[in-house]
Amino acid sequence: MPGRGPLRQSQVIAPFGPGAIHTDRFGVSLICCGLDHWFSKIENETDCDEFKIIDEWRINRSLGVDHLRKPPDYRNTIPGIDVPNIGMTIPFLRFPTWHYCSNCGHMKKTSLTYQGLKDKNICPVCYTEKSFKIPLVQVRFAVVCDHGHIHDFPWNEWAHQDFSPDCGEDSLRLVEYGGGTLDSIEVICTKCKKRKRLGGITSGELKIKGEPFQCNGRRLWLHDNEGIGCGRPVRGVLRNSSNIYFSQIFSSIFLPKIDKKTDVEIEEITRILEKPGISDLIDVLISMDTPIETILEKIKGQYGKYFQEYNERQVLSALQAYLNTEKEPQDCEASSGDSYDRESFRREEYRILAEEWDIPYLNSEKVDLEKYSDAVSLIFSKIMLIKKVRETRVFTGFTRLDPPEDQNFFELRRSLWLNDPEPSNSWLPASIVNGEGLFLEFNRTTLVQWLEGPEKETIGNRISNLRRNYENASRERGGFGLFNELHPVFILIHTVSHLLMNQLTFECGYSSASLRERLYFSTDESSPMAALLIYTAAGDSEGTMGGLVRMGKPGLFEPMLKDAVRKSQWCSADPVCMELGDMGGQGPYSCNLAACHNCALVPETSCEEFNRFLDRGLVTGTVENRALGFLNVIFDQV
Questions:
Q1: DSSP character for 232?
Q2: Which residues form the MrfA-like Zn-binding domain (predicted)?
Q3: Does residue 376 lie in a domain region?
Q4: In terms of domains, do 152 and 230 share one?
Q5: d(CA 164, CA 55)
Q6: Same-domain check for residues 503 and 632
Q7: CA 108 to CA 129: how far, in whole Å?
Q8: CA trace torsion 197, 201, 202, 206 (10° rounding)
Q9: What pLDDT, on the 0 to 100 scale, is given for residue 423?
Q10: Which residues neighbour 248 within 8 Å (Cβ) at sequence distance 6 or greater?
């Protein structure tokens, strides 16, 4: 669809991935097609190599895919230059297909395909009776089910209140009476004069004569005309409503396959081994149970030019590291993408980010805590300046009506493909963001002293209120996503992360949505975690200018931290905000205590828990009890 309202590659990951509705610059509402059609113009599979992301081994392992792909970008021919993959586009279909005349209300159903401005539909009634060329516009309504299907609104059935109406679809008219509610819109059949208003179509299940209208299971964005026999009740929605599409994004920080900083050469060689041609040769030799020495000989024989800078020992060590990662045992469910161990996945990041690195895509520096003030060393046990970091965001599926509440990748992936690809060629779309960040590890000794201190009972009571609210919400919704345990330390880390992000937007000049958090928490006694990563999430140069790293340096970090603590002591909505926290909670499902948009909330795209499970009281205390706050106690001591 060249020229039809271009999208950035990252936008095709979220929020306009497969099954999402996008309105182009000419006002036409379109739905993004499934992954079967993204690279359908490429005849030779090797032409896809330039779009493959081949070094995200952790994601491939966790999601059970062979590789990731960047969305194709549209390219024009350039005289005298051989441009590969010219004219590739991501196909979109016109949806809704029902249109109406803004003058007379005549309704007409068109095809899903759309050919641009030349495909304008003119109202036949106005043109025949008055010679007016009035273009038909798309209706604003559709129906969806909670299994992710979307269809045109059943206008004919709704007007006649009959599942099998006799009148044809060409006799319908859509009339608006100028009111501010859906009850002021009416669909009328000009043949039998039956009519029905739209009031209540978005408030619950769509019913005709008391019987629910059932979903047929057709996935139009996949060109699935047969359907899968869904049978779920449907609900009317506005085509641009926020609950019509929720992307599920799997995010990962790039980590090297090696553990030792001194083996940078091995990491570089490993990246060479991941090249499509070399990795294919290795896979073939492995399938033949070829000894590793023979594999090394074959690789150097065919691709020796890539390894001229390295000795045989380094290449052999890199090959062993590559094979160990490829052969790493996986849980059968995790390899199919059905589930994965989130704590183990994050623990890998936690371990690497806590060390100094200087390799492609990851450059970090540890700062000596003695250079900071005494308060900082009591709060944190480690501060890492992440000068370079790469995040990969993978689109794993979507839901409608309600956001995804778990990591059931396998179920959601069924809505992305009409025909599942072979396991050896399975892939998901992804985008890469390069940026910088601050990694802060909390002092465990100080945390234990705070938890076991004189305010132990008060802390427990506050968390029990929050936990009760969460459990009630989970029962009400039949499941409620929670990535971490509701523990006082987790609530503390999460709230500190939000306070720092809000302060950094003022100190560094970042936009409020340019920063994101990653929380590392575990109560495992053998290997506990209590850390956070704040990093830039913007896909442009804003995230690579060094401003975030600069604020982590001694002399700048301390006043920034103190300002964040000072501002959190009094919210502009206090005393109401703090009192609501003391009374049991606020926000959606009361899953926050003393935290609101004026003090501790950030854009939802920046928060891992969708702005839930926050409490300023655990950070800086309450008005009556400042000793409750972890940071407030420390700053008072020093």
A1: -
A2: 497-599
A3: no
A4: yes
A5: 54
A6: yes
A7: 17
A8: -170
A9: 83
A10: 395, 396, 397, 398, 399, 404, 409, 412
Q: Are residues 149 and 263 in the same domain?
A: no
Alpha carbon 581 to its chain centroid, in Å, reads 29
For residue 316, give its domain range.
255-328
Same domain assignment for residues 208 and 276:
no
For residue 52, with 0-12 CB atoms within 10 Å meaning exposed, 13-18 middle and 19 or more buried, which class applies? Answer: middle
Task: Return d(Cα 265, Cα 460) in angstroms, integer.
Answer: 50
Give the C-alpha separation, 572 to 578, whole Å.
10
Q: Are residues 289 and 208 located together in one domain of the fold?
A: no
- Tokens 């609530």 label which residue? 491
Q: What is the CA radius of gyration of the chain?
A: 28
Q: Is 617 among the domain residues?
A: yes
Rounded to the nearest 10 degrees, what angle do helices 557-569 and 488-508 cross at?
110
Average pLDDT of adjacent 10-residue blocks, the chain of 638 residues:
65 90 88 89 71 84 88 83 81 92 90 68 86 89 92 92 84 88 91 90 87 89 82 91 89 75 65 77 80 83 80 78 55 42 87 87 91 91 93 92 71 85 88 92 93 90 90 75 80 96 88 90 89 82 70 93 91 92 87 93 89 92 88 74
User: Which pLDDT score is estimated for 262?
Assistant: 43
- Residue pair 600/508 in contact by the 8 Å Cβ criterion: no
Distance CA 71, CA 33 (A): 13
- Among the three residues 291, 310, 328, which one is the final residue of a domain in this structure? 328
160, 6, 630, 599: which is closest to 378 by C-alpha?
630
Question: Whole-angstrom Cα distance, residue 261 to residue 265?
Answer: 10
Q: Which residue has the tokens 């059905």?
A: 338
Sheet holding 92-94, edge to edge: 21-23, 29-32, 92-94
* Residues 616 and 516 both lie in one domain: yes
Q: What is the pLDDT of residue 482?
A: 64
H-helix or E-strand spanning residue 529: strand 529-536
Q: Are residues 100 and 146 in the same domain?
A: yes
CB 157 within 8 A of CB 165: yes
Residue 496: inside a domain: yes
Cα–Cα distance for residue pair 547/172, rounded to 1 Å: 59
Q: Structural domain tally of the chain?
A: 3
Does 471 share its domain with 619?
A: yes
